[in-house]
Amino acid sequence: MEKKSNGAALYQEMRRMGLPIGEFTPGKGQDKISRVNSVSDLFRSGIVWAPDRRWAHEVIEECNDFPSGANDDLVDSTTLALMRFRQGGFIRLPNDEPEDIPGFRSTRNKLYLV
């Protein structure tokens, strides 16, 4: 969860409730448009699927209106979720770099020369 403005209070409340939630602070060059661009290939590939439900139509409509639409919260949360799934290896595309790099051993996202 992004710990900015209202997110900070919500973050604290969710932590008090015992929910295992982490904080997110966008880095330099990680504005909303950059984040959307970083996952656009997932949409283009067809790997992102939406059920025929009212809430899904709302997400699609907001994504379609981005960045000039009145709201962008659903776009931002969708983008952050897709980024997390991709970074965690839950979503892969055929053109992604292979995980096994000859001569290297991965341990908790750190690479060591063997």
Descriptive labels:
mainly alpha; globular; 114 residues; 7% strand; 4 helices
Please give a structural write-up.
- This protein has helices spanning 6-16, 32-45, 54-65, 73-87; strands at residues 104-107, 110-113.
- It is mainly alpha-helical and 114 residues long.
- The protein folds into 2 domains: 1-27, no CATH class; 31-113, no CATH class.
- It has a two-stranded antiparallel sheet with strand order 1-2.
- The longest helix has 15 residues, at 73-87.
- It starts with 5 loop residues before the first helix and ends with a strand.
- The mean pLDDT is 83.
Order of helices and strands: HHHHEE
Query: Count of DSSP E strands?
Result: 2
Could you list the spans in which at least 5 consecutive residues all have pLDDT below 50? none
Estimate the helix proportion, in percent.
Answer: 40-55%
Number of helices: 4
* Rounded average pLDDT: 83
How would you describe the shape?
globular
Q: Which class of secondary structure composition applies to the elements? A: mainly alpha
Task: Give the domain tally.
Answer: 2
Terminal Cα span: 37 Å
How would you characterize the largest beta sheet? 2 strands, antiparallel
Approximate strand percentage: 5-15%
Q: How large, in whole angstroms, is the Cα Rg?
A: 17 Å
Would you spell out the secondary-structure blueprint of this structure?
Elements: H1 6-16, H2 32-45, H3 54-65, H4 73-87, E1 104-107, E2 110-113
Antiparallel strand pairs: 1-2
Helix pairs in contact: 2-4
